[in-house]
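Marked as duplicate of an earlier ticket. Keeping the data here for the record.
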Amino acid sequence: MKRLLAICSLLIFSLSCNAADRPNIVWIIADDMSAHFSCYGEKLITTPHVDALAERGTLFSKAFVTAPVCSTNRSAFITGMYQTSIGAHQHRSGRGKLKIELPEGVKIVPELFQDGDYFTSISGWPIQKGKRGKTDYNFEWDESAYAGNDWRLRKEGQPFFHQVQIPGGKLRGADHEKTADFRKRMEEIHGAGPKPEEVSLPPYYPRDPELLHDWAAYLDSAKETDRVVGEVVARLKEDGLLENTVVLFMTDHGISHARGKQYCYDEGLHVPLVLAGPGVDSGKRRDDLVEHIDIAALSLALAGIEIPEKMQAQDILAKDYQPRDAVFGARDRCDETVDRIRSVRTQKYKYIRNFYPKRPHLQPNNYKDNKSIYQAIREADKKGELDEVQKQILLSPERAPEELYDLESDPFEINNLAESKEHAAALKDMRNRLDTWIKETNDQGDESPEMYDSDMAVYLLGFDRKGRERPDSKANVTKNIELMKKWASEG
């Protein structure tokens, strides 16, 4: 009996130690922001809290999203699946009468954590009683996957998985007045921010005062995002949890701009990814290619939870992990605007396939057309202030069916080599890589007319329910929907 009691005591002790040793996982996800932090080389601002996270953890210099718009991106990382594989690749889809169900065997990450006896929660910042954070998933899901909005609500000693969702680049606003107000608020908190004339823009953007003003405000939003990261870490430390918590910082896609958000150029796909905590190498920088969906697999692995066999994400922290030689991206319908773009990127090349090359790069889209920066670009064109590169890249009435860029010599993706005989072999290789990925991952392709109509009915209804700043927005969207259907009928 004594021996049996001793064995039972040892077993209980072992189980309690294992529970205590299981790390907490905290994701901090910011909207609309590229890797403009000082640890990534940004010179006009300092971001000490993200930098500190990188110093005590691992920074990934080449992390890329698989979808350059929020709902499709979030549908991907919360399942660890390509959005194109699970039918969640059309932005804000499945909201109408026609619904999207996840394929059999696919669960969202918080459900998997709950299966592993973790407490799951999601919030904005600061955490407010009863208020949850942004989800924005395109499929049907059970909200009980999140048990609350604060890790402090868990049982004593229970490990937790918590997501902090913050506005990031959205903070700067869409028009000049809102951006100016934001800059004033940020100056009160952080002191004087970058001067517009100091800002460096990608060469495909004109140095227009409106664009410079906006980009300076965007850098202000990076400083504010960094401040929030510091507050999250401070709260964990206050609760005595930091030493046993993995903190992960990432954004949901790149900066919202004319070649960023919604597009498969690096400006839209390249994001920061920094994590620190138990099980993560300290002071390490990794330059291999990783995909944003991988945060699902690595988080489960750190928690000792089995990664589902069907999950496409990979545990990029595993000792036997074999680095990818390519990453993939996909853009589809965004709001009312129909498109289909696919991309594959290696360390050296980027290949983009435009399935609707007869449509312009800047298709009509109410969300973007109301932004001051878009209006400024078009106004600069009217005044003859765009150079030939800017005019061709931003405002050409058609696109090339295929684009190929040598990223080593052309990091801004300006010189399309798809018709270069010298790069014919590279084009063929990249084309084959994409074809294989589309087939093997079961890319769901275009949206049906019925699903489009179902989603647009809800989208249009939103203008009546919520109101919009511009009274002509609903009319603009209706006009754009009619144009999309007209173009579709014309092939």
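See parent ticket for discussion. DSSP finds 14 helices and twelve strands in the chain.
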